[in-house]
Design brief:
Elements: H1 9-21, H2 26-33, H3 37-43
């Protein structure tokens, strides 16, 4: 069984800010950072 990934607060904040302010779509950001798009939306 696979282990869950754990992300630190700084990483979450950086990705969420990028999703809010950046010109990239959530899908582009998720591909860049290896995080599911739904997770990024929850962090926003």
């Amino acid at each position: 069984m696979a282990q869950r990934k754990r992300y630190g607060g700084q990483f979450k904040a950086r990705v969420a800010i990028e999703a809010i302010a950046g010109p990239k779509t959530v899908n582009q950001i998720s591909a860049e950072h290896g995080v599911h798009p739904t997770q990024i939306t929850k962090w926003k």
